[in-house]
UniProtKB/TrEMBL annotation:
NCBIfam families: NAPRTase_put (TIGR01513). Its EC number is 6.3.4.21. This is Nicotinate phosphoribosyltransferase. Residues 335-434 form the Nicotinate/nicotinamide phosphoribosyltransferase domain. Belongs to the NAPRTase family. Residues 440-551 form the Nicotinate phosphoribosyltransferase C-terminal domain. Catalyzes the first step in the biosynthesis of NAD from nicotinic acid, the ATP-dependent synthesis of beta-nicotinate D-ribonucleotide from nicotinate and 5-phospho-D-ribose 1-phosphate. Helps prevent cellular oxidative stress via its role in NAD biosynthesis. GO terms for molecular function: glycosyltransferase activity; metal ion binding; nicotinate phosphoribosyltransferase activity. Residues 1-23 are annotated as: Disordered. InterPro entries: Aldolase_TIM, N/Namide_PRibTrfase, NAPRTase_C, NAPRTase_N, Nic_PRibTrfase-Fam, Nic_PRibTrfase_pncB, Nicotinate_pribotase-like_C. It comes from Lactuca saligna.
Length: 566
């Protein structure tokens, strides 16, 4: 795994104050201050014109509904937001472009103002990346001059939306597949462009996948790479006569097989004589056999064959086994097969039986456990169906449905003003789900006796935090009849400072990708399975303190206009 610099300037280490490296810019060079909507600049000018641009504002970034019909979401994209804000600066070219886009009546002083702004007066508080999160609870709280923070809205929402959606999708696939299956992300070719492909690989790994086929993501993020060959490689061969270099040195280097092709054909003849294989296969496809032999000669330590080009049980699996047994004679262990079509449950079970027969008949230790990988447009539903049918697949290669988030294209994050100049603000709507929760808040997670999360609770910034063992009244933000007392065994403070205005000030470190992935897996284990299940999951409770509940409704009544009947 490629080491990433820790960023925690000013953190005390014993008696010494270590100065940490500067925060690098965003991974994607397209993420610049211009990656925003025009109305952010028009508002910035209006704020400046009104003399309000330095007003101290607080915004919450959150979402309203969990994706994919589920009851949880995984928060991702925070590191890229911090990279963006730490290097935020409009260039002269950027400002010249904005000048062209705005009205010619805009004053020169505004563009001079744009040239001087950065994020040194901005603070970002957030939940740790990789955490399981829920609707209405702020993922990020951004404080600073209103005009500057407004310019951060679109890029922040953009960086969080897709990242959190893909990570959640990956986590859901991991939950259905189970902890012990190897999950491989194969989605680059079907992703929404290069950025979608690279980002999906990163966040699928964060959400619990084990490896990717994406070389660029492997280089950028240190994600393990996996990949073998396609049907084109198999069908490009016409027969064993094409193989000119037939020799193979043994694993320990003690001997050389001068004709590996003949050794493989000898094993294929032995397989045909197996009583269990009678009626299963006769003559296998020789061009396929040639392809497998060639691939094994190229990668004897990592031989994994795609076996469905012609016929899985009558050709692909026997040909693979012949090559694998020949490799075994030379001290190598084949990795396994990949199934990319057909009845995956049936074919995997039949293949496993064939492997186990070979182990028994030829006394080849552990051959029965040779790996079986399945691909072919897999999704959550397919994995669930395979589990119910019974299968022998060890690894799943998943692409299109995973990286494109085919089941739901967007998460729907929003960025709402909740306070300005210490005055709480609220956004009202006839749709209660769109009513914002005002003021600067703290968020806590309360855990029960069994270690599972019970409820998230939000309270005002200046309220005393809830304590373990203390009886706490948790209220639904808008429904007065929904309330419950909780006596938590553990209280977790969710919000930490990730950007205090400078990388040199004390702040939370940005963890490595592996650390975020580990945190994500731990978080998912702390959730009850009824919250996680695919069908009819139990909603997780999000609440507010009594004080905050009362304040929400006071402000609501105060801000809502009173109608008049005539």
């Amino acid at each position: 795994m490629e080491a990433k610099p820790k960023v925690n300037g000013g953190v005390k280490d014993g008696k010494q104050n270590r100065r940490m490296p500067a925060i690098h810019g965003p991974t994607n060079p397209m993420v610049t201050p211009l990656l925003t909507d025009l109305y952010q600049f028009t508002m910035a000018y209006a704020y400046w014109k009104a003399g309000k641009h330095k007003d101290r504002a607080v915004f919450d970034l959150y979402f309203r509904r969990n994706p994919f019909g589920g009851e949880y979401t995984v928060f991702a994209g925070l590191e890229e937001c911090i990279r963006f804000i730490a290097n935020f600066k409009l260039s002269k070219e950027d400002i010249a472009f904005i000048r062209e886009c705005l009205s010619p009546t805009c004053e020169d002083g505004f563009f001079e103002y744009l040239g001087g702004i950065d994020c040194s007066d901005v603070e970002v508080y957030a939940i740790a990346e990789g955490s399981v999160v829920f609707p209405k609870v702020p993922l990020m709280r951004i404080e600073g001059p209103v005009a500057v923070v407004q310019l951060l809205e679109t890029p922040f929402v953009n960086l969080i939306n897709f990242a959190s959606l893909v990570t959640t999708n990956a986590a859901r696939h991991r939950f259905v597949a189970g902890k012990n299956k190897l999950l491989l992300e194969f989605g680059l070719r079907r992703a929404q462009g290069p950025d979608g492909g690279v980002g999906a690989s990163r966040y699928c790994y964060m959400g619990g996948f084990d490896a990717t086929s994406n070389c660029a993501a492997g280089k950028l993020f240190g994600i393990p790479l996996r990949g073998t060959h396609s049907h084109a490689f198999v069908s490009s061969f016409t027969g064993p006569d094409e193989i000119t270099e037939k020799s193979l040195k043994s694993q320990d280097g003690s001997k050389v097989c001068k004709d590996f092709v003949s050794l493989t054909q000898t094993w294929l003849s032995k397989l045909k004589r197996l009583s269990s294989s009678e009626g299963v296969f006769g003559e296998t496809n020789q061009s396929e056999l040639a392809a497998f032999i060639s691939y094994a000669l190229a990668f004897p330590k990592n031989f994994l064959a795609l076996v469905d080009t012609y016929d899985v049980m009558r050709s692909g699996v026997p040909n693979f086994c012949a090559v694998a047994l020949a490799l075994n004679d030379m001290g190598y262990r084949a990795k396994g097969i990949r199934l990319d079509s057909g009845d995956l449950a049936y074919l995997s079970c039949e293949t496993r039986k064939f492997f186990q027969t070979i182990e028994k008949e030829f006394q080849i230790p552990d051959f029965g456990n040779t790996g079986i990988t399945a691909s072919n447009d897999l999704n959550e539903e397919t994995l669930d169906a395979l589990n119910k049918q019974g299968h022998e697949v060890d690894s799943f290669g998943i692409g299109t449905n995973l990286v494109t988030c085919f089941a739901q294209p967007a998460l729907g994050c929003v960025f709402k003003l909740v306070e300005i100049n210490n005055q709480p603000r609220i956004k009202l709507s006839e749709d209660v789900s769109k009513v914002s929760i005002p003021c600067k808040k703290r968020s806590y997670r309360l855990y029960g006796k069994e270690g599972y999360a019970l409820v998230d609770i939000m309270s005002g910034e200046n309220e005393p935090p809830p304590k373990a063992g203390q009886r706490i009244l948790c209220r639904h933000p808008f429904n007065e009849s929904k309330r419950a007392y909780v006596v938590p065994q553990l209280v977790e403070d969710l919000i930490k400072c990730y950007w205090p205005g400078s990388a040199e000030k004390e702040r939370e470190e940005l963890p490595t990708l592996v650390e975020i992935r580990d945190h994500c897996m731990k978080q998912l284990e702390q959730m009850r399975t009824d919250h996680m299940r695919r069908l009819n999951p139990t909603p997780y409770k999000v609440s507010v303190s009594t004080k905050l509940y009362e304040f929400i409704h006071f402000l609501w009544l105060n801000e809502a206009p009173v109608g008049e009947l005539q």
